[in-house]
């Protein structure tokens, strides 16, 4: 050491520092990731708050990124999106690493859900592996591994923390569109959800009538409804049909499959169970009074099962029954259907597709469609109609005489509390102006 001067030590220090920095910038963790970027302030930008964010290619639309805890020994992020199934070949995740604000880039695995029903655009999972030691809270998605990150949208990675559930049951109502105006049935369904045990109803809202809008605001103030804006028609030609050959547009049912998947991931660590159904549908217990007692029994009988399918029973709006209920005079001025008048259901035809709906454990679901789960763990179980059924009040599916229908007054078990709750809601919502 006596032969090494202070000046030589300074040179050695500079060389070692340069070598370290060169190695850090190229690949500090010795991984096979494609691209790295030096520290920058590009992650100190305003986060994207839109529900649907187009990329510059106008073929890719990002919904939201979610941390994927279920991939063992990896830090993975699943980005829910809508993409063109032919024209998008490569996408990249640009991670904003917590460590020294480095930007690290990895290529996304593109997984288009198989239930696209012929439309050119479909719900898609982009799966990116986070670089080791990165611990990102934010990311961007780009069509290239190179470019200027300050010009890319910046998203917060959700679901990083697993907290105690804030709800036992969350209902997902996807893609409310077509200027939805069935005020009375909407209020009745909302109150039935509350009676049965829902603590949260999430509505992916495209548009509705002003009266329905006022009712939705009431339930938001009550703390039960969360609205996710869903302006998908601003970006894609949307169809009201489920199949491309019925209506050749860009995407079916206003992107319903994407909305349902997003609702599952939004509630994965917020809700014990998630219900996937439409606003004219109610999963109605037969043997039990509430969803709590229903699901407790179903889980005891089917340990490990994560998906429960409920048989769809159509209650035609064309057949009415007067139950002689009192205290419903204020309902007469409301547009829409009174579900208490519809207590006759169509018999189910063997071998006919009836489109069941579901209650799922969201932590066991990776991908879902509208009427069945596409990728899950734990398997699924069809619930017998004697245990519970899907009450679906809608236009008739079959051309039947009234005498061919089956009387089913199960919903009348709830009439006292239902009428009381509806009248309370109506007293607090001004639907006349």
Keywords:
433 residues; alpha+beta; five-stranded antiparallel beta sheet; 24 strands; 28% strand
Molecular structure report:
By secondary structure, the protein is α+β, with helices and mostly antiparallel strands. Helices cover 19% and strands 28% of the residues. It has 6 helices and 24 strands. It has helices at 6-26, 183-196, 210-222, 256-266, 291-301, 415-428; strands at 35-37, 53-54, 60-68, 76-84, 92-96, 103-107, 109-112, 121-129, 138-142, 155-156, 167-176, 200-205, 225-229, 271-276, 281-285, 307-310, 312-316, 344-345, 357-360, 365-368, 373-376, 380-383, 388-394, 406-407. The protein has a 7-stranded mixed sheet. It has a 5-stranded antiparallel sheet with strand order 1-6-5-9-10, with no helix packed on it. Strand 20 and strand 21 (373-376) form a beta hairpin. Helix 2 packs across helix 6 (415-428). The radius of gyration is 26 Å and the shape is elongated. The protein starts with 5 loop residues before the first helix and ends in a 5-residue tail after the last helix. 39% of the residues are buried. Mean pLDDT is 90; it is low at 6-34.
Write a short abstract of this structure.
This protein is α+β, with helices and mostly antiparallel strands and 433 residues long. It has helices at 6-26, 183-196, 210-222, 256-266, 291-301, 415-428, and strands spanning 35-37, 53-54, 60-68, 76-84, 92-96, 103-107, 109-112, 121-129, 138-142, 155-156, 167-176, 200-205, 225-229, 271-276, 281-285, 307-310, 312-316, 344-345, 357-360, 365-368, 373-376, 380-383, 388-394, 406-407.
